């Protein structure tokens, strides 16, 4: 079967050593979606490639797509951006790990998604200089869910159609819809979001990009409610419990201990 020459920008989502001198990388490419590729001899002669294909790096790739083989083959990789600021802070690094792992979990191979690619690149750029990661990660989750077509509307109550307002709204996961406090009954079965969290959700959703953070009236409660709601939907979207979150929690905990002034309500 003939190999097809491809050129595209691509981000390194994962990388593994392969034998003495080679690597296996999982790349999220702009034009061709996620691919698995072999990089022969890169550890013996990294200069030949122009990039070491480190984790989270953005590269201009030339590769050979090999249908019916386990791996494509990388021919050249020129480094475009290594997002150097990510490695300076464990919280940023953990957040970068979170969004790249989430991208990996939410995509299948050979299914191009340029919008998600751009979202991932802009999120990594935003994280690089971020004092904290909370809103960048929430923005990423929100956009991922929206692009995946699984973001429910919070414009009004699914039952009576009234605008959701005080004292709270209830998200019923079984219906994936919001009910107002009047329609939700007394049992409060579901996830409760107060007006502050709904307002923050609207603000975040209206932002044009990940780097324009202007989340106004935030409190620890707003953060907790938003995180819980988005996590529920992210788990639903990728169809499994998302384990890297646990890893990120540990990183965030370390980051907060080092930067108590920005800890707020915690990263998650
Ligand atoms: Zn209602």
Mean of all residue-level pLDDT scores: 87
Shape: elongated
CATH topology of the largest domain: de novo design (two linked rop proteins)
Helical fraction equals 25-40%
Number of helices: 6
Taking all Cα atoms into account, the compactness measure Rg is: 21 Å
What pattern of helices and strands is seen along the backbone?
A: EEEEEHHHEEEHHH
Number of strands: 8
Which strand order spans the largest sheet, edge to edge or round the barrel?
1-2-3-5-4
Provide the structure class.
alpha+beta
Unreliable sequence segments = 260-268
CATH secondary-structure class of the largest domain: Mainly Alpha
User: CATH homologous superfamily of the largest domain - what is it?
Assistant: Recombination protein O, C-terminal domain
CATH architecture name of the largest domain: Up-down Bundle
Key terms for this structure?
268 residues, alpha+beta, elongated, binds zinc ion
Give a brief rundown of this model:
The chain is α+β, with helices and mostly antiparallel strands and 268 residues long. It is 34% helix and 22% strand. A hairpin with a 4-residue loop joins strand 6 (169-172) and strand 7.
Account of the protein in words:
The protein has 268 residues and is an alpha+beta fold. It is built from 6 helices and 8 strands; from the N terminus they run βββββαααβββααα. Strands 1-2-3-5-4 form a 5-stranded mixed barrel. The chain has a 3-stranded antiparallel beta sheet with strand order 7-6-8. The chain is elongated and about 65 Å long. It folds into 2 domains: 79 residues, Beta Barrel (OB fold (Dihydrolipoamide Acetyltransferase, E2P)); 177 residues, Up-down Bundle (de novo design (two linked rop proteins)), CATH 1.20.1440. Helix content is 34%, strand content 22%. A hairpin with a 4-residue loop joins β6 and β7. The C terminus is likely disordered.
